[in-house]
Amino acid sequence: MTVATSVIGLASTAAKPVSAAAEAALTPPGATHLDALKTRLAQAPRRRDFKTVPMILDHEEQWDHEALTDVLSYSPAPKQVWDNTDIGGPSLNLMRNALNSQIWSFKHSEFLAVSVTHGTAQLALYDQAMWDKYQLTGLAGELFKTNTAIIEKKAAAADPANYQNPTGPFSGEDNCIPALMRRGVVFMSCHNAIWEQAGALIKSDINPDKLSHPALAAELTNHLVDGAVLIPGAAGTLPELQQVGFHYAK
Q1: Which among 52, 95, 138, 243 is least surrounded, fewest beta carbons within 10 Å?
Q2: Is the pLDDT of residue 19 over 70?
């Protein structure tokens, strides 16, 4: 218990709501449940003041359990969970297309999409400070000199009332994490991926502060982008989402 509280206690003091970043009205009219979920998630604590983290999270105070519980409790259907592993893959575009089809083709205004993010896709959930400090291009690949997934696009400034605009906020011109978050997409961050990436950085001697493995993993965790939901592990959380009705997509 003493060991657990040394890790958990520090995290709990930092549990505070995330800032609602640029909350443009991108959810469809009448999506009252989805809007309410977005509000709850914006108010739910995010634990981002870890000094160290263990390899296996074994207490709910070590992850964003309130936010995860809010997502698991979301009742409207349909809802979809994406198993996203490749930073260079088409996941942002596919989730955008799924939203557009569900909302305007099938008239499911309350449709919820969740990205369970791990593998190299997890790198997109770190802020640019971590990319710079730990040279994350080395893990992401040469196509990603910076974390382009978190950069706002010019299309975000277009009128959202015109959902058919081919260069507007619902088009492929606005494929980025902030835009999808404004539409209600929940990005979940895998602790196991964080732990493994911390280990890879140490093995490559990209560790300027000479941190221990638990401390480096903690620093990466503390620099997740606003709005991300920290979960114990992607592979273990996917069944939890599927059990409450989320349809699996890869």
Answers
A1: 243
A2: no
| pTM higher than the cut 0.85 | yes
Pairwise CA distance, residues 168 & 228, whole Å = 24
97 pLDDT above the threshold of 70: yes
Does residue 9 surpass a pLDDT of 60?
no
What tokens does 239 get? 């069944």
Give the whole-angstrom CA distance, residue 183 versus residue 163: 13
Q: Is the pLDDT of residue 205 over 70?
A: yes
Q: What is the 3-state secondary structure (H, E, C) of the chain?
A: CHHHHHHHHHHHHCCEECCCCCCCCCCCCCCHHHHHHHHHHHHCEECCCCCCCCCCCCCHHHCCHHHHHHHHCCCCCCEEEEEECCCCCCHHHHHHHHHHHHHHHCCCCCCEEEEEECHHHHHHHECHHHHHHCCCHHHHCCCCCCCHHHCCCHHHHCCCCCCCCCCCCCCHHHCCHHHHHHCCCEEEEEHHHHHHHHHHHHHCCCCCCCCCHHHHHHHHHHCECCCCEEECCHHHHHHHHHHCCCEEEC
Cα–Cα dist 50/43, whole Å: 20
Question: Are 117 and 152 in contact, with CB atoms under 8 Å apart?
Answer: no
